[in-house]
Amino acid sequence: MTHPVGGGARPGTLKALGALGTAVIVSVGYIGVTYAIGLRELWAGFVLLLCFGFFAEMKLQTLPSVVAGALFGIVMAAIPVWLSPSLGTLGAYAVMLTMILIAIYLFLLGRAAVLVNPTTLTFLTIVTNPHILPAARVGDIVLGTIAGAAYFGGLAGIGALLARRKDAAAAPPGGMA
User: Fold this and answer.
1) Is residue 22 assigned to a domain?
2) pTM, full prediction
3) What is the pLDDT of residues 154-169, one digit of tens each?
4) Domain with 71 in it
5) Residue 47 resides in a domain
6) What confidence tens digit (pLDDT) does each residue in 79-107 have?
7) How many domains does the chain have?
8) Considering the domain boundaries, does residue 15 fall inside one?
9) Among 45, 38, 71, 6, which residue's Cα sits nearest to residue 155?
């Protein structure tokens, strides 16, 4: 039977338990690191991991656009916080809505993909939730996002390096198959 997300074969029970155990260890490590350095909005790093995993398939070369998209989504969501004092609530929301419409238009055209991508829209949707932004500082959300990028991106980089070494060790001598 194929996997509903990637279309590949489903893992066996032991492999699935191993993956789950690894996910728990990695998550606990991230929580420990973020608490140790005093970050408050560590959920943003987990959302970044979700986007990096599902939208970018944990490919390290995509991490910069995932992070840029996340930060752009946060910026768009924060417009009412930043501009309401000078433009009023209605003016600030008008600016935010205009930016969102332009971003969606660019997304549909496939333009500016580094800034406007599925991660942008995910962060925009989550951060504009009325239970998130009024209770959290934008800077703390940005720091949580960057911490997630550094931690999970670093682990993805280590994993890619180990996979390359394993592939090189399994290759026949002289590079011929």
Assistant:
1) no
2) 0.87
3) 999 999 999 899 888 8
4) 30-160
5) yes
6) 999 999 999 999 999 999 999 999 999 99
7) 1
8) no
9) 45
